[in-house]
Amino acid sequence: METQQQPVETQGALDFIKAQDPEAADRLKRLLERKSFLLDRNVYGERFTERQFDLVFDPLLRSAHEKARILEALSIKDETVASLSAQLSMDRSRVFEHLLDLVKRNAVEIAGFDARHPVFKKR
């Protein structure tokens, strides 16, 4: 089966994600490997368009990339939601949502508190 080459920015994002969160990179890679099948037909015999695939894949890639950026920052220094938000120019609620997911996946843990604000660290 011929593998379709991804754009440089997608491949670069996948490489960055793999360096920080190999599990997430593997999930995205498996989805990309199924792309040609999904564009051809799904289990119900329906076809995805390229645009429909991108509408599903792009937010997943963006979310995984944001989580990888958080993990990279936490590998340097333990941080609060507010400091991560400022450092990464990302909305606080988005950072918090990502941290909740990373805590649930045991990639991040609470290292302590800074004036009632949890300080997160990479496991």
Summary of the model, kept short:
The protein is mainly α and 123 residues long. The chain has six helices and two strands, in the order H-H-H-H-H-H-E-E. A two-stranded antiparallel ribbon has the order 1-2.
Describe this structure in words.
The chain has 123 residues and is mostly helical. It has one domain (8-122): Winged helix-like DNA-binding domain superfamily/Winged helix DNA-binding domain (Arc Repressor Mutant, subunit A, Orthogonal Bundle), CATH 1.10.10.10. It is 64% helix and 11% strand. It has six helices and two strands. A hairpin with a 2-residue loop joins strand 1 (108-114) and strand 2 (117-122). Helix 1 runs antiparallel to helix 2 (22-33), helix 2 (22-33) packs antiparallel against helix 4 (50-76) and helix 5 packs across helix 6 (92-104). It starts with 7 loop residues before the first helix and ends with a strand.
List the helices and strands and how they pair.
Blueprint: H1 8-20, H2 22-33, H3 35-40, H4 50-76, H5 81-88, H6 92-104, E1 108-114, E2 117-122
Antiparallel strand pairs: 1-2
The unreliable regions are 1-8
CATH class: Mainly Alpha
Q: Largest beta sheet, briefly?
A: 2 strands, antiparallel
Principal-axis shape equals elongated
Number of strands: 2
Give the H and E element order: HHHHHHEE
Query: Helix coverage percent of residues?
Result: 55-70%
Strand order, largest beta sheet: 1-2
> If helices are DSSP runs of H or I spanning 4 or more residues, what is the number of helices?
6
CATH architecture: Orthogonal Bundle
Q: What is the count of distinct domains?
A: 1
Mean pLDDT across the residues is 89
